[in-house]
Amino acid sequence: MAAKTVNDIVALCKRRGFIFTGSEIYGGLGGAYDYGPYGVELMKNIRDAWWNAMIYSRDDIEGLDAALITNRLMWKYSGHEAGFSDPLVECKKCGARMRQDKMKDQSKCDNCGSTEITEPRAYQLMMGLSIGATADGAINAYLRPETATTTYTNFKNVLDAKPHKLPFGIAQIGKAFRNEISPRGFVFRMREFEQAEMQYFVNPADDEAFHKMWMDERLAWWINVLGIPAEKLRFAPHEKLAHYAKAAVDIEYEFPDGFDEVEGIHNRQDFDLGSHTKGQKELEINANVIENKDSITKLAFSDPQTGKTFVPYVIETAMGINRAMLAVMIEAYNEEDLGDGKSRTVLKLKPALAPVKAAVIPLARNIPELLNISNEIVRDLRRLGIGRIELENSGNIGKNYRRHDEIGTPVCITVDHQTIEDNTVTLRHRDTMAQERVPITQIKEKLLEIVK
């Protein structure tokens, strides 16, 4: 069964090197975390799974990696500078600050229960920067609060470099930064996080069909690739739409504390390209956009069949890699009673996502023959290029098995005295703990079958 509380995952992450508190030796910093040896591997594998689904498995989506530091005008015309804020209230009694829309009871302080609450005020979520020798502390740039806007502003660059017909998309994975009032839920809501977003540009006449298509595509990915059971996921349409949206639906996962968002699929109509294009009056822009006097590029599409130039609609899929990792770990977490007072904790991750693909374990660390054979197996498996292969040489086979159960390693390969005699090893499978004896020559084939 999945983890009962997020605290189960927090403890495992610290103990086994998945996630550490950022700046921990100085008391930490709210909403900032560091990813340890196995956390970086799991994050990379989730990124790779998304990139494979979006880029390598399709012909109609291109990749992008845009700058983190951006011109202030970008966020003026996107609407972020004026409107990207949360309603903040403060308790007059204890001084606690809270997002009004997240309070349990908006008439009482979540911290002390006092009813002496200030009126809400807008709290800017973007992180401003002062860059340049003459900036003198004034904000003249921002760390991007999302990857999407830097995708829109590269629309024509990508289209010119690699022409496409509609529909086509641009995908991007990267860091984003938000000045969150109250980071929460471990890595669920942070000030520095990683997004995987894809913007799919479509003819306005086809927007609703493609919105439905991407809802189905993304839900199937969570189930089939990340291994989240269908009954733990649901669609949640937005009750109140943002000013730019025609339709918006979240994929929600059932965390231990209830359902919450893990990915959004939005029909943003022509707001984004329309906001950043020059020559707005020449184009029939449906969305309500700010008049743009600074853009030097027309972000529109010329249909070669009709000769008409128009601003495409955008269907967006937006996922947080950190939230995906948390959901995957919660779902994979199992505590199993083995009888006789023994138990084990095991992460039953999809093998393709596992931080370590295989561990090679010599039964005794003081026997040179066993270590030499183990090292040769490790070198041979690493040539496959499938991910991390570890050599475990502590000499305690039981502890090694338990450690690799906890980090989700799908198979352990034990080299023992019989190996010296007949060139066979023991494959011990994580989920079932079943063991099988196989020739060394078959290890690569067996491992590829497991992690494919």
Structure write-up:
This protein is of the alpha+beta class. It folds into two domains: 6-70 and 142-329, BirA Bifunctional Protein, domain 2 (2-Layer Sandwich); 354-451, 3-Layer(aba) Sandwich (Rossmann fold). It has 13 helices and 24 strands. The protein has helices at 6-16, 37-56, 72-78, 80-83, 148-152, 155-161, 207-224, 271-276, 321-332, 368-382, 397-407, 417-422, 443-451, and strands spanning 19-21, 33-35, 61-64, 69-71, 85-90, 97-99, 121-124, 127-129, 141-143, 168-177, 192-202, 233-237, 247-255, 258-267, 301-302, 309-310, 313-320, 333-339, 342-347, 356-362, 388-391, 411-415, 424-429, 435-439. Strand 15 (301-302) and strand 16 (309-310) form a beta hairpin. The two termini are 24 Å apart.
